[in-house]
Inverse folding.
């Protein structure tokens, strides 16, 4: 249920604003469900331990993707619910909103999933998520010491990410 | 070191002098030959190196080009030849797609000359790695090679299968 209208935002490379923290937390998963990154800025309530929390989030997204594709009224070709989809089939959801938060999601064809949980008034974060993907490529993928599929430990990436997310108002 | 601004990141496509690249690459191959001695072993290493490059570079390609999923293998092959290999994205090689088989699972990519091709197994590993990260298992082999006296460089790319995303956790955990 939406109490607040969303505001139109077109995020572009960082412009410092004074609004500070809008984001609650962020996850980055790869195609095998490994949580590459979890960042928390403002999360008053923890209900599960980190492993369970990550699995829950990944499972939620997996199911949501499947569900939204099957419910698509414009797509004639629908498989059975629960059957894994070939990449490229079906539509893909990009956000959902409750009265207390908004979850924005982006998945790349290579299976990298970026999730940002923010204040419910936040507008469309698709461009922001694309920018974060660009940061991932620059600081993580191009780092020869990083081995793909393992959790990200890069200081530079964390700092750049932190700076950028804080600037999204 | 402060993080670079977004503009700097997105507009930077670093270029390397072609001769420097050839010499560096040649030096790697020479060293591999010294360490491993067998040509077969060296080719396997080059393929593995190409694979390791491909699985990372696919993300850079996706981020810079902003393309979403290719609908089928035909579109993928076109994407490889025209965008991935062509300048200014990567590698600076001019390529064209041809010789599709009946089910559209196997095609040939013909490449014009480039310094990279003098020791070319890295390229086949590269394509294989990149495609695997977008859920396509392929087999990439060289069918024509100017160094062996053919008239062009030709790669055959065969789609083995498309791997759908599976739920990775077991239900009882």
């Amino acid at each position: 249920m939406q109490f607040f209208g969303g505001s139109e935002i077109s995020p572009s490379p960082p412009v410092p604003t004074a609004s500070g923290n809008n984001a609650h937390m962020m996850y980055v998963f790869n195609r095998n469900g490994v949580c590459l990154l979890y960042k928390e800025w403002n999360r008053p309530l923890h209900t599960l331990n980190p492993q369970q929390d990550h699995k829950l989030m990944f499972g939620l997204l997996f199911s949501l993707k499947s569900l939204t594709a099957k419910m698509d009224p414009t797509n004639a070709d629908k498989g059975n619910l629960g059957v894994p989809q070939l990449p490229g089939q079906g539509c893909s959801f990009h956000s959902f909103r409750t009265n207390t938060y908004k979850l924005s999601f982006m998945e790349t064809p290579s299976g990298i999933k970026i999730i940002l949980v923010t204040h419910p008034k936040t507008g469309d974060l698709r461009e922001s998520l694309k920018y974060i993907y660009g940061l991932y490529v620059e600081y993580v993928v191009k780092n020869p010491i990083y081995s793909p599929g393992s959790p990200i430990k890069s200081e530079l990436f964390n700092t750049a990410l932190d700076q950028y997310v804080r600037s999204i108002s | 070191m402060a993080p670079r601004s977004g503009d700097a990141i997105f507009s930077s496509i670093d270029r390397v002098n072609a001769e420097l690249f050839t010499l560096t690459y040649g030096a790697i191959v020479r060293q591999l030959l010294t360490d491993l001695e067998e040509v077969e072993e060296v080719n396997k290493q080059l393929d593995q190196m190409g694979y390791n490059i491909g699985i990372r570079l696919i993300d850079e390609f996706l981020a810079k080009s902003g393309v979403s999923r290719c609908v089928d293998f035909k579109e993928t092959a076109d994407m490889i030849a025209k965008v991935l290999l062509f300048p200014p994205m990567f590698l600076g090689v001019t390529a064209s797609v041809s010789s599709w088989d009946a089910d559209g699972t196997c095609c040939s990519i013909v490449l014009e000359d480039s310094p990279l091709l003098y020791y070319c197994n890295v390229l086949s590993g590269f394509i294989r790695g990149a495609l695997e990260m977008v859920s396509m298992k392929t087999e990439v082999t060289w069918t024509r090679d100017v160094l062996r006296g053919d008239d062009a460089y030709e790669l055959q790319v065969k789609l083995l299968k498309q791997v759908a995303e599976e739920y990775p956790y077991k239900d009882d955990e």
